[in-house]
Specification:
Layout lengths: L2 H11 L2 E2 L7 H4 L4 H22 L4 H17 L4 E4 L2 H4 L6 E4 L5 H10 L6 E6 L8 H8 L2 E3 L4 H17 L3 E4 L8 E3 L6 H9 L3 E7 L21 E5 L9 H18 L3 E3 L11
Parallel strand pairs: 2-9, 3-6, 3-8, 4-5, 4-6, 7-10
Antiparallel strand pairs: 1-2, 8-9
Length: about 280
């Protein structure tokens, strides 16, 4: 399935489900999946650095490379499940997409999903990613919102300032409001920054539940952990939520949506020390 077919599927069925699976190659060499996955992923990154360095890496090209990353996942046996895009298709303007952060996979795949419905989208990323080999030049060319993760007060100002500008110009923003990615959903570490950005800009919030532990976090290099093709990748979009009342109430709705879907997929939600589910307050 090429990019046009992929985007057509997203727009007409409001979702996507991997159909084909790789042949017998990995059955003969089962330990080669992670190696092949990273070789193909690095090749995709390398290819995208050329337009990045020429200054021609625009949003349509970003959508193309995002789709190629999805195809890399599928090429080694990964199964991608995307659903709930009715809310995105019905948007009358920009929105803030708020999701949990499990692995680097969502950073690669989500832009292509949102760009099937919008001409512009931006991410909030860690500043250090702008200095990574290959990825650094790509993220700089895309002019993504970068935060240090060292000074919460300053990061808050950067996200509100830069995010508000993007939203005012008609672009949407994707944000993972937690300190670091984790295979478990730590509600206490999931802050209200995304909701506050949406409130200030006067745009709705769309919660996104994510399960991408297919792509494991590495022991030595966090972005390059082992892959597990038996774990499906899930991306589910919730209904748009207008931020007209208290931001904590909207935040709670986002938390509940993510918690409910992660639990249904067999994911882990971190509980409070007292033994009950954390409420994000």
């Amino acid at each position: 399935m090429d990019l046009d077919q992929y985007q057509h599927t997203l727009r007409t069925t409001f979702g996507y489900q991997t159909r084909s699976r790789p042949g017998s190659f990995f059955k003969c060499l089962p330990g080669s999946r992670s190696l092949v996955y990273y070789i193909r992923l690095i090749y995709t990154f390398l290819h995208s650095t050329f337009p990045a360095r020429r200054g021609t890496l625009d949003r349509p090209k970003w959508a193309l490379y995002s789709h190629r990353c999805l195809r890399v996942v599928e090429s080694v046996g990964g199964s991608v499940n995307i659903s709930g895009l009715e809310s995105v298709a019905n948007l009358q303007g920009p929105a803030v997409f708020i999701g949990n952060h499990m692995s680097v996979a969502e950073t690669l795949i989500l832009p292509g999903v949102v760009l099937a419905f919008s001409s512009d989208v931006n991410f909030v990323i860690k500043e250090e990613l702008r200095h990574y080999p290959l990825l650094g030049s790509i993220f700089k060319a895309l002019n993504l919102i970068a935060v240090s993760r060292k000074n919460p007060r300053e990061d808050f100002k950067v996200v509100l300032r830069e995010g508000h500008k993007i939203l005012a110009e008609g672009g949407s923003v994707i944000i993972f409001p937690q300190a670091t990615r984790s295979v478990e959903f730590d509600i206490q570490a999931f802050n209200t920054l995304g909701v506050k950005l949406a409130s200030r800009a006067g745009v709705p919030v769309i919660p996104v539940a994510i399960k991408t532990d297919f792509h494991g976090n590495g022991k030595w290099v966090k972005d390059m952990g082992p892959i597990n093709h038996q774990k499906p990748l899930y991306f589910k979009f919730g209904n748009a939520i207008p931020v007209t009342g208290k931001s904590k109430e909207v935040h709670q709705q986002v938390v509940e949506f993510i918690t409910r879907n992660l639990t249904a997929w067999g994911g882990t939600v971190k509980e409070t020390a007292a033994g009950g589910p954390a409420d994000g307050r």
